[in-house]
Amino acid sequence: MAWNRKHLLDIESLSADEIITILDTARAFKAVGERAIKKVPALRGKTVVNLFVEPSTRTRISFELSELRLSADIINFTAEASSLKKGESLRDTARNLEALNADFIVIRHSASGAPHFLARVIEASVINAGDGAHEHPTQALLDIFTIREHKGKIEGLNVTILGDILYSRVARSNIWALTKLGARVTLCGPSTLVPKVFEQMGCRVTYDVDEAIREADIINLLRIQHERQRKSMFPSLGEYSSLFGLNKERLAKTKPDALIMHPGPINRGVEIDSEIADCERSLILEQVTNGLAVRMAVLFLVNGGKGPQDIG
Amino acid sequence: MTNSSILLNAQAMQRALTRIAHEVVERNDPPTELVIIGIQRSGVPLAQRLGKTLAEILNHPVPTGSLDVSMHRDDLDSRIAPNIQPTEIPVDITGQTVVLVDDVLFSGRTIRAAMDALNDFGRPRRIQLAVLIDRGHRELPIKADFVGKNVPTSVNETVEVRLTEMGHPDEVVLERT
């Protein structure tokens, strides 16, 4: 199916077919990354601004390398070094970047909806690299790409997302994508971090870890986000680890072909035991590799998206 | 109002491919180190047929692959992004004679993109081009080495190559709109 969107702002507004188009396109770009020459001229002469108002290392590096492999020219703009610190508004910053004739703006921002706002005020294509606790679409796409590579499908799979759901944009984007593609999603974690209201998104919510992972085909672990928690949501990291951390004993009770994922950065000994993070059932490093393919696919598709835009 | 005429029927298509296979052998003597690469999409089944016929003539298998040129096109920002099909280059093409296969040669831009794309896989000794139909209207200095049928067309006409591998009986149709 043809892709005609100019932006990638969230997963919520995508159809299942659009998600599949991204995944199929990403498969072709993964092959590019495995060649001796890992670069194609698809975005030659295009300028991409990586506007990372909120700190990020892995997502930024992944986007940068994806852009370089598509032959784009890139500018990196981080909050620490920017005029945003001097009181410039996001709108003015973006319009200044646009005055440089940027074709794409990849934005990471602590405010939910910042990419949608940008898409309304500027002409460039906008790609959401994570907005507050709202969405992180490319992370969900690379997670699903990785699952599909291993399981051959998404429909009918049991996917358990374990950890800090409340503050997680990764969880929200994953829930949208997985449910659109027909997976059964179970959420688990401390009740303060996994409110029942998520059931309205079509998920099952449980607070019993062993039950949550027993039938799971995929266990996606999320990091406890200290930086977003306004007050302590659970007594201690040690208690979290013993109640919800994935360890050898818990893993032994899962299906033998259940696979483990984590968007990183991992806190060894908190949400995941060190030896499990490195075991053969862990897809954590494959997720990093697949992130490049998915981001290249998104940039490639958005470059061609000239249709009318419905910005939510 | 559309009217159409058949340029090649199944039999004529088969004959054209057989003739091209013989011409490829004749041109590349000794016919060693041949790699047949079809351009996605219709070029791929044609390349497979050509590779099979060549293998029968030469009594040894001829490596056959596929190439998607989407990432190397020069019109990416003026169109909806194309659906990318698999690229499978079966052998190291460095030092080999690559025969690119496509269904219709028109502007020549696809072939330009294909030659660029091939460069990422190695440095062939030479690249030759085989097409089922050459319909003219070149926009680049590109010429086919092997042609099934030359068809003078107007730019308003379309040439459609239908293949059994893609769910239609074999035929080539010229449509005027």
Describe this structure in words.
The complex is a heterodimer of chains A (312) and B (177). Chain A is an alpha/beta fold. Chain A has two domains: 16-135 and 289-304, 3-Layer(aba) Sandwich (Rossmann fold), CATH 3.40.50; 137-288, 3-Layer(aba) Sandwich (Rossmann fold). Chain A is built from eleven helices and nine strands. In chain A, the strands form two sheets. A five-stranded parallel beta sheet of chain A has the order 7-6-5-8-9. Chain A has a four-stranded parallel beta sheet with strand order 2-1-3-4, sandwiched between helices. Residues 307-312 of chain A have low confidence and may be disordered. Chain B has one domain: Rossmann fold (3-Layer(aba) Sandwich), CATH 3.40.50.2020. Chain B is 25% helix and 28% strand. Chain B contains three helices and eight strands. Chain B has helices at 10-27, 43-58, 109-119; strands at residues 3-8, 34-39, 64-67, 97-105, 126-134, 146-150, 158-162, 171-176. In chain B, the strands form two sheets. In chain B, strands 3-2-4-5-6 form a five-stranded parallel beta sheet. A three-stranded antiparallel beta sheet of chain B has the order 1-8-7. Chain B is globular and about 45 Å long. The mean pLDDT of chain B is 94. The A-B interface holds A 1-4, 21, 24-25, 28-29, 31-32, 35-37, 39-43, 46, 300-301, 303-307 and B 68, 70-73, 76-77, 79-87, 116-117, 120-121.
